[in-house]
Amino acid sequence: MNLTDILYEKTNGTAKITMNRPKSLNAFRGETVQELIRCFRDAWDDNEIGVVVLTGAGDRAFCVGGDIKQRESGGYGGNGGLTGGMGLEMETLHYVIRNIPKPVIAAVNGYAVGGGHVLQVLCDLTIASDRAILGQKGPSVGSYDAGFGSAYLARIVGEKKAREIWYLCLQYSAEEALQMGLINKVVPHEQLQEEVDKWCELILQKSPTALKMLKASFNADSANIEGISQLAFGSLSMFYKSEEALEGKNAFVEKRPVDFSRFRK
Ligand SMILES: CC(C)(COP(=O)(O)OP(=O)(O)OC[C@H]1O[C@@H](n2cnc3c(N)ncnc32)[C@H](O)[C@@H]1OP(=O)(O)O)[C@@H](O)C(=O)NCCC(=O)NCCSC(=O)c1cc(O)c2ccccc2c1O
User: Site (Important for catalysis): which residue positions (predicted)?
Assistant: First the structure.
């Protein structure tokens, strides 16, 4: 596969997908999302693969969400269509992570923030380094991921905690994330790969059909969130054209404090 933003390797039944833009803390742009979708589809279609690992390149980040520096008033470019006018085919990416009939493990090696955090939320299982920092950021930068990013998050950590995560945009340590049930396990940073390998091995010893059916049954209960997701991304593409959204983006790029006060009037 010809890939620029992703590293993709398949070894002994495991497909490893690494977001590879470390200079931007693995923030995603249109191409990154397209390549992620292609890799998940390849792993879906390959009968030798029984488990998928999603991680980030480098030592600092899993993924910090959309590449804000590339965000324009109409989103991230593109011609509309599958990207809903935003240049990021996020709904499809969320779809393939949720619906690939094999367990997906997020190996969170650093920051998992914004849309990057939503990716770890969507994975079946998460193992994090003790250096990981997790949280949402959208309302600080004029954005939101209000489909699976909010409604499914609330199923995982409960309504109160999910609202805190989104309304306050705090950053949580791996240990705090573990305590609130947001992730499955925390390990010393150096042992992350080893632990992920162990979990993959355990999964690969199991009946693939049983795992496939279990994943489908877990998903069934939250399937209606897909409709909420369509509404949320549809409204986001309109919101991105607003002065309010641009204030969030510009403040981040200009490295200055954001001021949304005029939009409360
Ligand atoms: C993550 C941080 C808290 C890290 O802070 P720290 O101080 O440790 O590091 P720096 O801030 O110096 O970052 C290093 C370097 O990386 C650049 N960078 C960081 N985040 C991004 C980013 N999101 N986009 C582009 N570049 C980024 C940073 O500018 C530095 O580069 P220099 O050249 O200046 O050295 C902190 O970095 C932080 O808070 N980052 C912002 C994270 C954020 O707001 N994420 C949410 C973005 S919006 C989003 O995720 C999103 C999701 C979706 O699903 C969408 C769907 C459809 C459309 C749009 C979507 C969308 O926008």
Answer: 76, 240
226-252, pLDDT tens digit by residue?
999 999 999 998 998 899 999 999 999
DSSP state of 72: B
How many domains is the chain built from? 1
240 is in an annotated binding site: yes
Sheet holding 51-56, edge to edge: 6-11, 14-19, 51-56, 104-108, 125-129, 185-187
Best probe residue, ligand 1, of 5, 25, 136, 241 (max atoms within 8 Å of C-beta): 25
Tell me the β-bridge partners of 19.
6, 56
Domain with 113 in it:
6-190
Place of tokens 């079946």: 124
Helices (H), 125-221: 138-141, 153-157, 159-168, 174-179, 192-204, 208-220
Residues forming beta bridges with residue 129, ordered by sequence position: 187
Q: What is the CATH number of the domain that holds 169?
A: 3.90.226.10
In this prediction the ipTM stands at: 0.97
In a domain, 126, yes or no: yes
Report the b/e string of 215-228 with b at 16+ CB within 10 A: beeeeeeeeebbeb
